[in-house]
């Protein structure tokens, strides 16, 4: 299936990269070194070893970071309660902690070094059915975290705040708690080191958290942000934190989720139908200029209905099977859970795409042009895709020398380019992806070239017209709406979008688009 996932309209680094920050303007020196606060016992990220030396991944990475900035530094080790207070009150210059909305007005956070996901640790054989909706009356231990505490309290759990996870693990094995909630890397470390083979962990549907640098010195954080972007691009963050920098997976889905998904899909479909009825003429003029007959609506609804029914039927069917067959083994349950999870995400992905179509044809995305630094945008797009690439696949960005600034709508540039990059990422198992852009005769061109598996022969003819091809959803797998959304956007911008085979590398695909823009700088 040649599908594309819609990304949200947010820029993580646009403002920071535009700032002229430099380590040379900071005031740290050999006589007055930067003081980096660390936790005595927060393995494997930071701790003091048996020799009294600072150790852990945070120590290793911070040494690389501060060496790159040429900033002299020293360490200040203490208990977490004291170090957190020292960082927030400026008694130490720099530390690392989880981003908190409750503290964001008290101090300065850097961009995320990596994301952390929660797991629940239980005694083996006692985790079945113990999700966040099933903890009422259970004793759940965790280190102080307001989001975790609020979630557990609402669910009716008996919450127990602990200060030492190693001690808590021992107490869990002896029955003092029903479960412990901590981050995934902590769970792996603690179970391997202290679990004695009696514990296991599973993922939770709690929102992931960002692990960041934090300081009272905003200028220091701005400088760190710039270097973090460079280190991520060079793969240094992955090299240091690869063992704990994980993605969300293995989700246990309670039985009520498929009802929620069904409701979301029905509501979204009703919204789209209403938008289409109101904007009927615009749909015909802008999205399907070559086909204006009333049959188009029937084909569109037929395709959408098929795309919705396929994952929804899977969710309902697998859920009913689990509910009716109480003798089902754990392996079978896990397999069905993964299938429910996969189809649930497919439904939500499709709903997002439907909302995109409604916005475009309803003119809610205003196609507002503004000054846009194309070089910065393209680097950002590549940086967001890079961590998701399969092992061995790399991504390159090729642009004109001297940079490029133009007038265009950056959110629409992001939507189309990220669709094509995501498309290339999903279908490239080895080799490379190349994002290139250039100006020619007042026309802005973008190409995404990959060395992937290519486009199936039977899909090439209507690759960008899945919305109005009556045969599009007769295949076993639906091809998705992403490329049709890209075409709708580029058509509105008086441009063109297309595809060709990657003859230069002997395999793969090249997706491209162009649109007229106003250039603001000349090479």
Q: Can you characterise this structure?
A:
By secondary structure, the protein is of the alpha+beta class. The chain is 40% helix and 20% strand. It is built from 15 helices and 22 strands. The chain has a 5-stranded mixed β-sheet with strand order 11-10-12-9-13, sandwiched between helices. Strands 16-18-19-21-20 form a 5-stranded mixed β-sheet. A hairpin with a 7-residue loop joins strand 20 and strand 21. Helix 11 runs antiparallel to helix 12, helix 12 runs parallel beside helix 15 and helix 14 packs antiparallel against helix 15. The N terminus is likely disordered.
Segments where pLDDT lies below 50 for 5+ residues? 1-21, 247-253, 289-297, 468-479
- Note the beta-strand portion: 15-25%
Number of strands: 22
Computed over alpha carbons, the radius of gyration is 26 Å
Largest sheet: 5 strands, mixed
Integer average pLDDT: 79
Helix % is 40-55%
Decide which structural class fits the backbone: alpha+beta
User: What is the number of helices?
Assistant: 15
Strand arrangement, major sheet: 11-10-12-9-13
Termini Cα gap: 41 Å
**Shape estimate:** globular
